[in-house]
Amino acid sequence: MPIIRFEGQEYDCSEDETLLDSLASHGVMLPSACKAGACQTCLTRALKGKPSAASQQGIRDTLAAQGYFLACLCKPSGDMEIGLASVSPRYSARLVGKELLNESIIRLRLERPASFSYRAGQFVNLTREGDALTRSYSLASIPSDDCLELHVKRVPDGKMSNWLFDEVVVGDELSFFGPSGDCFYISDSGDQPLMLAGAGTGLAPLYGILRDALEQGHRGPIHLFHASLATPGLYLMDELRALATRYEQFHYTPCVLHGDAPEGGVQGNIVDIPAMTLGSLAGYRVFLCGDPPIVNGLRQKSFLAGASMQAIYSDPFVFTPA
Questions:
Q1: pTM of the entire structure?
Q2: Using an 8 Å Cβ cutoff, are 76 and 49 in contact?
Q3: Residue 96 in contact with residue 147, Cβ under 8 Å?
Q4: SS3 string of the chain?
Q5: 125-180, pLDDT tens digit by residue?
Q6: Residues spanned by CATH 3.10.20.30 within the chain?
Q7: Which CATH code, of 1.10.10.10, 3.10.20.30, 3.20.170.30, 3.40.50.1000, is assigned to 3-83?
Q8: Which residue ranges does the record assign to the FAD-binding FR-type domain (predicted)?
Q9: Is the pLDDT of residue 318 over 70?
Q10: pLDDT at 23 over 80
Q11: What are phi and psi for residue 106, nearest 5 degrees?
């Protein structure tokens, strides 16, 4: 008889009943509604043990990859430890690199703590010691890198970004917790076309997702559209062009809203450019990152161009001024 561990307590579970019903019989009521796998109110995470395949049907693949499942459909075949939400431990890491990528964006490289694991494209939450000021930044690095890489844009009157720009120096210890987010690559369909689009530091997670997909041997076409108001706001163009030269399946398009576009680029609104360039997005897996209005616009246009909502992954950024 499987044993279910939840919040420090252990409960027996009969193999012919769902985890949701079993815990309810012990007086433990998990959030639930339809009890048929439709509403996903009972979404739960397996901290130890493997949920049944049936209990992961219908949920986003990036959630399934992190151990999430539907308790109303799960009939455990072995012991499990579960949680309603993951608790992110706090880490401390030394800053080993700091460089200007353009006039308003810096690259920070942190020593990767030995116990820290993540998926390229997820984000961490930096916390400033003293006042507990916390901001989220996406990871531009990939798990095989020695360091964690963040791209930080200076925000007018931004408490965290100005502190990182003006006061933090190489050698300082920075505190963070995470990772979080389900905008990352899964190598379950290596021939599927991928479309990545974003503006500003929305490139950070896209850069990580791109490199991760290439490292894992993705064979299908990969199109990356990165936008800025004008050419000086773009960055990592040389690195991305080098990748496009090395990998024939990768195509990089820099985009600008105003002025002349750089070589190989396009002038126009990033919200319109991917669908105009590629035509139908049916069958594509789509990754979108950047400011909420841009991400929301890209999501709508991608859907109208044929992409399935289940195949659109996004992490909109929210800037918090002083």
A1: 0.79
A2: yes
A3: yes
A4: CCEEEECCEEEECCCCCCHHHHHHHCCCCCCCCCCCCCCCCCEEEEEECCCCHHHHCCCCHHHHHCCEEECCCCCCCCCEEEECCCCCCEEEEEEEEEEEEECCEEEEEEECCCCCCCCCCCEEEEECCCCCCEEEEEECCCCCCCEEEEEEECCCCCHHHHHHHHCCCCCCEEEEEEEECCCCCCCCCCCCCEEEEEEHHHHHHHHHHHHHHHHCCCCCCEEEEEEECCHHHCCCHHHHHHHHHHCCCEEEEEEECCCCCCCCCEECCCCCHHHHHHCCCCCCEEEEEECHHHHHHHHHHHHHCCCCHHHEEEEECCCCCC
A5: 899 988 888 888 999 999 999 999 999 999 998 999 999 999 999 999 999 988 88
A6: 3-83
A7: 3.10.20.30
A8: 88-186
A9: no
A10: yes
A11: -115, 155
Span 34-72, pLDDT tens digits: 777 866 778 898 989 999 999 998 787 878 888 889 999
Share of residues in the chain with pLDDT > 70 (%): 96
- HSE at residue 294, side-chain half, CA atoms within 13 A, is 27
pLDDT of residue 85: 58
Give span(s): CATH 2.40.30.10, the chain. Answer: 90-180
Query: How many beta carbons lie within 10 A of that of residue 196, not counting itself?
Result: 28
pLDDT for the residue 282: 97
**Region 231-248 average pLDDT:** 97
